[in-house]
Pimeloyl-ACP methyl ester carboxylesterase (Saccharopolyspora shandongensis), 280 residues
Amino acid sequence: MKVLEVDGIELALDRRGPDGAPALLLIAGGGQSMDWWTPEFCDLLGAGELQVIRYDHRDTGQSSTSAPGQPDYTGDDLAADPLRVLDALGIEDAHLMGMSMGGGIAQSIAVRARERVRSLTLVESSPAGGDRGDLPPPSLAVAATWEEPEPEIDWADETAVIDYRVDVERPFAGPLGFDEARVRALATLEVRRSRNMASSMANHFIAEPGTSVDPAEIRVPTLVLHSADDPMFPLPHGEALARVIPGARLMRLGGVGHEIPPPAVWDVVVPELHRHLLHT
């Protein structure tokens, strides 16, 4: 991993795969560090033919942080950071894969800087603007988490913070169940590597939102990966993306929740991603 200093901020990244190969840039969801894109998944995606780049959003991992509850950036800043990463690495264009909020960021880049985008993969995401239609809300279990008072966390207590990070993920699981051992391992890695978990868990969700874009204006090959059981953005959100983006394809997943595809579905997801990424 390395930390770039660009435009007065620090952005941590990890790059895997052959130098000079076409690039795949992975954009995580809100409050997620790069750790949720596991090295094993990255290596499978790259297949020895792509350089796969993952990075920490601001306020996650080893990237720049602001005080808890006081983000010093906007959603538009978060949407500009992937281009800062590509510029710093001297990469003219890349495949973009975004999860949830990361999918919104990827849509924004594909509309505003389409010459920088080879293809899009939108994972458990939702239209970032335009005519969204009447889309269903999150599940009651997910919505209930927003109504509950924030627990008192001793952010200096590593065990308590890891437990909290695991618990945050529980309502987003799908019918395959909550893989606590896997999530706990990822949460432990993230907590131990992050500069300020209090900021990570809050600031993305209270920052000024980014400017909306109409996904109907996207003109790059697009694959939509969406679970039939996503409790945050139910399947019609993915169907809406596939409908409004010209030529987009929808791959429906079963059993998983609102998450980066877990190992249980790699056998079906990875071949589809290879067809999309390696032939675009």
